[in-house]
Structure formats: C-alpha cells, structure tokens
Amino acid sequence: MSKGQETKASILDASLQIASRVGFDALTIGQLADRTDMSKSGLFAHFRSKEQLQLQTLEWARERFTDVVVRPTLAAPRGEPRVRALFERWLDWEQDGLSGGCVFVAASIEYDDQPGPMQDELVRHQRDWTEFIATVAGTAVSEGHFRADLDTEQLAFALQGLMLGYHHAHRLLRDPRALERTRAGFEQLLESAR
Q1: Does residue 48 belong to any structural domain of this protein?
Q2: Mean pLDDT, contiguous 10-residue spans, the chain (194 residues)
Q3: Of 167, 162, 168, the residue nearest 187 (C-alpha)
Q4: Residue 189 to residues 109, 151, 193, Cα–Cα distance (Å)
Q5: What's the sign of the alpha-carbon dihedral 34, 37, 39, 44?
Q6: How many separate helices (H) and strands (E) can be counted in the chain?
C-alpha cells in the first residue's frame, strides 16, 4: 500500500468511527479534519464534497465488513459449519471496535426514508448481504445439513431479524443477556432449518 493509500485508509477509518457514532448526515469534512489533524482543504482534495465523503465511508465500511465477515465465512467448511461461521463473524463485526456499533444498522435507520445515492448504495449493500446469507444457507441444504425444502430467503430474513434484535438489545437496551438470547435464537433457527 502506498503512502497515499495508507493516508486515505487512515482518514476513512476515522470517518467510519465518526459515522458509527453520529450518523452519516452529521459527518462533515470539518469534523473529520478535527479528528485527523488534517486541514479541511487537504481532506476536500480527497473527497470533493460531503456526499462523496459519505459514499466513500460507506464503501469503506463494506470493504471492512467483507474482510471481517464474508471472507472468513467463505473459508469455513460448506454447509451448517459455514452458516455458523457467518453468524460468529457477524458477531465479531458487531463487536469490532466501532464506537457506535454497526454502521449499517445506523445508516439503515438514517436513510430508510431519504432517497438518493446514499440510500441506493445502502440498499445495494444490504441486498447483497441478504443474498449472501441465503446462498450460505443454500450450501447447508446442498450438503444435506438442512432440509431440502428450506426457504433460504426466509432463513436469511429471520437471521437478519435476529441480528437486528441483538443490536437493539445490546446497544440501546444494554441487556446483559443480549448475546445469550441471540445465540439461543440462532440455535432455534438452525433447528427449524434441519
């Protein structure tokens, strides 16, 4: 990685931390300048607009999510072990050090009623994620770990609901049993898939 790429990665890491805490709309070049000890004009050269800063931060989050969740999931053995790996890697992402929690959950709430490039990209990312879950569940069907008539899209929907429930219970409600309850819900979901 070149020095310029390292600088950009460092800037985007800081931007992602800010967005996870205050949201994408509140993310500004000025706020990022304060956080990174860089000049506004230097940051403007990287992004050119607030919207580009937001879009590049969202894409950076997707790249990190791919590194933390998707690639390790695909390295797991096919079938139910891969479904379990997906769940565990997602929990790793949820606890990955973003001060405000999962930036995709926060952005989903922030942009659900705001048409435009950010919503478009977020919808694309979330559809890809749901499709990935269904595909991974499909490997469990083809390996004979899950029943042949399993609706993998329904499983993906239910798993997403479980993940959102965990985020809500853990981050907002500070429920000390959030992880325990989420793991129990996951086991019930797998049992219904067999």
Answers
A1: no
A2: 79 90 87 85 81 93 94 98 97 76 87 94 96 98 98 98 93 94 98 98
A3: 162
A4: 25, 12, 6
A5: negative
A6: 10, 0
Residue 103's pLDDT is what?
87
Residue 2 belongs to a domain: no
For residues 17 and 9, is the Cβ–Cβ distance under 8 A?
no
Domain annotation covers residue 150: yes
**CATH number for the domain that contains residue 154:** 1.10.357.10
What pLDDT, on a 0 to 100 scale, did the predictor assign at position 1?
67
Query: Which structure tokens are listed for 113?
Result: 């009623």
Of 27, 63, 26, give the one whose Cα is nearest residue 43. Answer: 27
Query: Residue 159: inside a domain, yes or no?
Result: yes
Range of the domain at 115: 55-193
Coil/strand/helix, residue 96: coil
Please state the domain count of the chain: 1
Q: What type of residue is 91?
A: L
Q: End-to-end CA distance of the chain, in Å?
A: 45
* Total-model pTM: 0.90
How far apart are alpha carbons 27 and 19 in whole angstroms? 6
Q: What is the phi-psi region of residue 97: left when phi exceeds 0, alpha when psi lies from -120 to 50, beta otherwise?
A: left
